[in-house]
Amino acid sequence: MKRFLLLLLALPVVGGLSSCSSQVEAKRPVSYHFESGKTAMLQGGLAYAPRNAPDAVKRAVAAGNRLQGKPYKWGGGHANGEDWGYDCSGTVSYVLRSAGLMKGVGTSKDYFSYGNKGEGRWITIYTRKGHVFMTIAGLRLDTGGRGGGDGPRWRPQTRSAKGTVMRHPDGL
Q1: C-beta separation of 124 from 172 below 8 A
Q2: C-alpha to C-alpha distance for 57 and 26, rounded to whole angstroms
Q3: For the region Disordered, what residue ranges are annotated (predicted)?
Q4: How many CA within 13 A on the CB side of residue 49?
Q5: What pLDDT, on a 0 to 100 scale, did the predictor assign at position 14?
Q6: What are the backbone dihedrals phi and psi of residue 91, each rounded to the nearest 5 degrees, phi first?
């Protein structure tokens, strides 16, 4: 009887673990290569969405542009949608909210269940324990990762995505 009760208690835990393994982990580094009509163009520190990009993508790029030059602030963007500084999840939340793709604010942990699993065509969120960043039209928006950094910036440099899970907004 004890063994049966232990088995019953363990079932929800096992079920919960199996759903984690259904996530799509990033297998390659995040790298930016400009392709006309397919990726955002970076010029003078600002990004420009391709003309054929969906409106939500154009709004996301515009939101990312508004964050350029803001400093890293732990917890920034969480209590107040418009803040003087942003952390990683505050940055991603601000952009998705501004694009009409999310309500409220999420932490890096919350993005494990955001949208759909896998890489998106236009927007991909990369999340792991303690950090989240995104690509919009192929261009990475990131706060710099470990220990903060200098704040939300468009970053064309290649970044390892090891240990991250990819998610994307529905249809994008």
Answers
A1: no
A2: 21
A3: 144-172
A4: 21
A5: 29
A6: -65, -50
The rounded distance, in Å, linking the Cα atoms of 145 and 165 is 15
Q: In terms of DSSP H, where are the helices of 40-152?
A: 55-67, 88-98
Residues 14-62: pLDDT tens digits? 233 334 457 999 999 999 999 999 999 999 999 999 999 999 999 999 9
Q: What is the pTM of this model?
A: 0.85
pLDDT score for 148: 52
134 forms bridges with which residues in the sheet?
A: 125, 141
Q: Could you tell me where the beta strands, DSSP code E, fall in 44-157?
A: 46-48, 116-117, 123-128, 131-136, 139-142, 153-155
Phi, psi of 17 (to 5 degrees): -70, -35
Using the predicted structure, report yes or no on whether residue 124 has a pLDDT greater than 80. Answer: yes
Give the residue, 58 or 11, on which the prediction is more confident. 58
- Which CATH class name applies to 47-168? alpha beta
Instruction: Report the alpha-carbon distance of residue 117 to residue 127 in Å, rounded.
Output: 11
Domain residue spans of the chain: 47-168
Which residue, chain included where needed, has tokens 């991909």?
Answer: 124
Token duo for residue 22: 């259904």
Token couple for 135: 């690509």
**Residue 54, strand partner residues:** none
The two structure tokens encoding residue 56: 């939500």
